[in-house]
Automatic annotation (TrEMBL):
Cell compartments where the protein resides: Cytoplasm, Cytoskeleton
Protein known as: Dynein heavy chain coiled coil stalk domain-containing protein
Coiled coil, from the record: 53-126, 283-338
GO molecular function terms listed in the Swiss-Prot or TrEMBL record: ATP binding; dynein intermediate chain binding; dynein light intermediate chain binding
GO terms for biological process, alphabetical: microtubule-based movement
Gene3D superfamilies found in the cross-reference section: 1.20.920.20
Keywords: ATP-binding, Coiled coil, Cytoplasm, Cytoskeleton, Dynein, Microtubule, Motor protein, Nucleotide-binding
Organism of origin: Timema genevievae (Walking stick)
């Protein structure tokens, strides 16, 4: 009987120590029903002990199950937080890398374009020197009298100087037939002077220019102003026109690749600028995405911290409850031993 009173005293003190824990209260609630059942009827008392200990163990098992669920939730929140942090890092790294690449492309394109501008400026200076010659020669062709052309056309056997000059004119204008008959047909065309005056040197093919350059090297004397003027008053302006257009075509050939390259670079520069504009606009989306991810990260981190706090408390409750159940189980075993003995 003294043992029972001693046990009740111990149980009461243990009960007051775990009232702050819900699970411990559940354990205590399971065991508190033991006191009214204390009697000398061994079978009834034994059943009560077993029943209450079983209920207490079930409560502890329930706590452990809940703790396991909390651990799983904690792992999920931590995984989501890590994923959000990784996405923030990757998003910002990708945006910065793309921005750096675009700025580098723009800078490189601008440098190349500046170099082309310098080269093109030198060629433009050459063109500026030749253009007055073109205008002068074109004006001189316009001043040729129709009678002078008719005089040349009426010749049965023209001087070599006139043939050389007309060959240069025909070749530059893309006429491959340089026979005397072809030359007379050309001179007989209505508006022939205007055709020559309005001719664009950009239409001169490389092959034609090279052929005329060879002609100028071999028959340079024929294109001398004095020599041409002695042959015919119409020959000298045509000779000047041939030489000026050959020079102009040569410079245009040098500038053509530069113009194409510059056009390509300008296109690339425009593309780079457009991409940078789009990137700048996209950075706003990146900022919004990062802000959203940061909110998610904060939420997941906060929730994980709360779960961890609850989990720690639950573990404390489990440890306390298990300790109490273990003590009660020991008491029960000692009681059985005393009863049997």
């Amino acid at each position: 009987m003294a043992f029972i009173h001693t046990y009740i005293h111990i149980f009461t003190s243990k009960k007051s120590g775990i009232q702050q824990r819900r699970a411990q209260l559940q354990v205590s609630a399971c065991l508190s029903g033991f006191k009214p059942l204390v009697s000398w009827q061994g079978s009834t008392k034994s059943c009560s002990w077993v029943s209450k200990l079983t209920e207490a163990r079930q409560v502890v098992d329930s706590l452990k199950s809940e703790a396991a669920n909390q651990e799983q939730r904690l792992a999920e929140k931590q995984a989501k937080a890590n994923s959000a942090l990784q996405m923030i890092t990757e998003t910002m790294r990708s945006a910065n890398s793309h921005k750096t690449e675009m700025e580098s492309l723009k800078e490189h394109t601008e440098k190349e374009n500046q170099q082309l501008v310098v080269r093109k400026r030198a060629i433009d200076e050459e063109l500026a020197e030749i253009e007055p010659l073109i205008r002068e020669a074109t004006a001189a062709v316009g001043n040729i009298k129709s009678e002078s052309l008719s005089e040349i056309r009426s010749m049965r056997a023209p001087p070599e100087v006139i043939r050389d000059i007309l060959e240069g004119v025909l070749r530059l204008m893309g006429i491959l037939d340089t026979s005397w008959n072809s030359m007379k047909i050309f001179l007989a065309k209505r508006g022939v002077k205007e055709d020559i005056r309005s001719f664009d040197a950009r239409q001169i093919s490389r092959e034609s220019r090279l052929a005329v350059e060879k002609l100028l090297q071999e028959k340079g004397e024929s294109f001398d102003p004095k020599t041409a003027r002695r042959a015919s008053t119409a020959a000298a302006p045509l000779a000047a026109w041939v030489m000026a257009n050959v020079q102009y075509s040569h410079v245009l050939e040098k500038i053509s690749p530069l113009e194409q390259e510059q056009s390509k670079l300008q296109h690339n520069l425009m593309m780079a600028k457009n991409q940078i504009v789009q990137l700048s606009s996209g950075l706003s989306d990146v900022d919004r995405t990062v802000a959203k991810l940061k909110d998610q990260l904060n939420t997941y981190t906060r929730e994980a911290a709360e779960i961890e706090i609850h989990l720690n408390r639950a573990q404390e409750t489990i440890n306390a409850a298990e300790g109490l159940v273990e003590k009660l189980n020991d008491e029960y075993n000692r009681w059985k031993t005393q009863v049997i003995s």
